[in-house]
Amino acid sequence: MTAPLLTVRDLTISFGQTEVVHGVGFEIKPGEALALVGESGSGKSVTAASILRLLPPQAHVAGFISFEGTDLAASTEPSLRGIRGNRVGMIFQEPMSSLNPVHTVGRQVGEVLAVHQGLRPNAARVRVVELLRSVGIPDPERRLEDYPHQLSGGQRQRVMIAMALANDPALLIADEPTTALDVTVEAQILALLKAEQQRRNMAMLFITHDLGIVRRLADRVAVMTDGRIVETGPVADVFSRPQHEYTRHLLAAAP
Ligand code: ADP
Ligand code: MG
Predict the structure, then answer these.
(1) Cβ–Cβ < 8 Å for 171, 30
(2) What is the pLDDT of residue 86?
(3) Using CA positions, which residue lies closest to atom 6 of ligand 1?
């Protein structure tokens, strides 16, 4: 048995008096893709954000979170900073909100390398071009001086993926990264993520409301509703023999 890369146990998240996540638990093995699926408002995003303590300060988080043997719940902010963007990459639904509109693409990707790898500008430039090429940005040398608004939505998401993968993370957390994209672009981005995940043998926590994406991308699935995970298992098992009433409802409602 391989030891889990990430273990979450008894995770509870509240905002003021309102508890929105009620004792959630799951594990991800190295190289494994786990999909967290559920309808809007079920608590997927706050669960993901709590792993690296990225929730706003008014959120109250309790529970056990261990990553690569480190107890994240007990970690200090400086050690969490070393894990974020380095051992764990993150991508979100709307890349425009994560990219700085007034800095060029080359500078932003370069900064990720400079912060975590201490590369000098020239070496960083070569790596930035390589990275942008690896995520399918055509003519990357010529895009370095572009600002985010000069790229298409799909290209912006590719830049975000390049930044998330720049430091070879052991885990990628992807929170609905294709929800804002057209279906054809979505298919390309999903194919890129799957290929990178397999090539790097990287684990992935993929958050989505789309069962088709779960089928395409994930090894295992955790079904979330109303702040609880009601069912977890290999995708083929859960889809062919759903055990929980809510999973049956979700499968019946899917196109
Ligand atoms: P999902 O990602 O599954 O759509 P979220 O994790 O974003 O759902 O939200 C789960 C619940 O937590 C929702 O009821 C949402 O309104 C609430 N919530 C999320 N962020 C905040 C916040 N900053 N303050 C108060 N409530 C929040
Ligand atoms: Mg969400």
Answers:
(1) no
(2) 85
(3) 43
Ligand 1 atom closest to the Cα of residue 15 is 25
In terms of DSSP H, where are the helices of the chain? Answer: 44-51, 77-83, 95-98, 105-117, 121-134, 140-143, 153-165, 183-200, 211-217, 235-240, 245-253
Over range 193-218, report the average pLDDT.
96
- The complex's ipTM? 0.99
Q: 44 CB less than 6 Å from ligand 1?
A: yes
Interatomic CA distance for residues 67 and 171, integer angstroms? 9
* Ligand with an atom nearest the CA of residue 20: 1
Q: Given this model, what pLDDT does residue 141 score?
A: 94
44 CA distance to ligand 2 middle (Å): 6
What average pLDDT score do residues 123-135 get? 92
- What does the CA dihedral 72, 159, 224, 81 come to, rounded to 10 degrees? 10
Rounded mean pLDDT, 221-241: 98
Q: 């400079």: which residue's tokens?
A: 114
Give, using CA atoms, the residue closest to atom 23 of ligand 1: 56
